[in-house]
Amino acid sequence: MSRRADERRVTSAVREVVDPMEQAADLANVIHWAVGEPRVDRNRIGLWGTSFSGGLVVHVAARDPRVKALVSQVGWFGQSVADTPPKTLADSYRDATARARGEGGYPPPGARVIGSLRGAPLAEKFLLYSPIEDVARARGCAMLFIAAEHEELFDNRRHPRLAYDRATGPKRYVEIPGIAHYGIYGEAREQATRLAIEWFDQHLKPLE
């Protein structure tokens, strides 16, 4: 097999695999790159994440004090290992061992493991990822949490609302009435965008 053909095969094999640690590293690398730009103020970095990325921005902010403000829209914040059901934990460790030893592969492209959501999570990587436990670590970060009143993918009380309760810096919680999860991209898009811009203006703009 040629090198190019082999590269295509490997790339195809790992498509649509959800690895939160790799995604967090990508987001961190964007910050590292951006602060090297002459027009970027490294003392006023903001992050904006939606849905799964709504937790990623907290994970990154907890580890990078240059992030001074963030907006998390309809964010999912993971769970601690202690809160993981025993069977799920055992299955995750089993799969991790198999992959580490070359005895297990990756989910196929297009896999739908969680409802209709496209993409398959690597369960063992999620054992290392729990933004809900990281919120209080981002002490210098102003956090805006935007939730959907009729959230259908998770319980707001265990995700954005709990994250808000645990945040220690400037914070705000807004629940948009009448929308479900994907309404943030549709009928509530303009409202959510306006809230985010106002938040960043308040916490990132220099004093005049």
What fold name goes in the CATH topology slot of the largest domain?
Answer: Rossmann fold
N-to-C SSE series? HEHEHEHEHHEHEH
Strand order of the largest sheet: 2-3-5-6
Q: What fraction of the residues are assigned to beta strands by DSSP? A: 5-15%
Helix content: 25-40%
Distance between the termini: 62 Å
Flag low-confidence runs.
5-13
Number of helices: 8
Structural class: alpha/beta
The CATH architecture of the largest domain comes to 3-Layer(aba) Sandwich
Number of individual domains: 2
Q: Shape, please?
A: globular
Rg value: 19 Å
CATH class of the largest domain: Alpha Beta
Overall residue-averaged pLDDT value: 89
Largest sheet: 4 strands, parallel
Would you count the extended β strands for me?
6
CATH homologous superfamily of the largest domain?
Alpha/Beta hydrolase fold, catalytic domain
